[in-house]
Amino acid sequence: MLTASCNTLATAVGVHKMAISMIDDSAMQAARIALDGLSQRQQVISHNLANVDTPGYKAQMVSFEGALSRAISQNKSSIQMQTTSEGHITGSGAGSMSVQVTERPGGSTRADGNNVDIDTELIDQTETGLRYQAISQVLSKKLILLKAIATAR
Predict the structure, then answer these.
(1) Using one digit for the tens of pLDDT, what is the confidence trace for 16-48?
(2) Residue 33 burial class via C-beta count within 10 angstroms: exposed 0-12, middle 13-18, buried 19 and up
(3) pTM, 2 dp
(4) From CA 91, how far away is CA 109, in angstroms rounded?
(5) How many CB atoms lie within 10 A of CB 100?
(6) What does the alpha-carbon distance between residue 35 and residue 103 come to, in Å, rounded to a whole number?
């Protein structure tokens, strides 16, 4: 009886690990990195817009595409979770992403030293919002599909 219970538990843990791996695959990790980068980009754009009239302020930009490309090409995360028991889920963390916030190159500097171009910022804000929304929708559809598969009988 005890052996049957152990086998049932082992099977349940195996199924649970498989389910987690279906949800937390490389595409989900890449999407998570992209959403984090886009979120940070949106914050920097908002900061630039808030400082459009601040003398001496230099517009900033966020670059995360290089880190995203590396994460996709490596197809593994930089941080592995430690498992100290068979019951632990072997997951992979997204790791720390290398997001670079730098001064925006180019553009014209006004007499007060500010180089924020409101038109550029508004275009970037719209583009970033659309990309975030598109990735969110794809993730949502994937999770809906996985839910449908899991609940199908």
Answers:
(1) 454 555 666 778 888 888 999 999 999 999 999
(2) buried
(3) 0.69
(4) 48
(5) 12
(6) 21
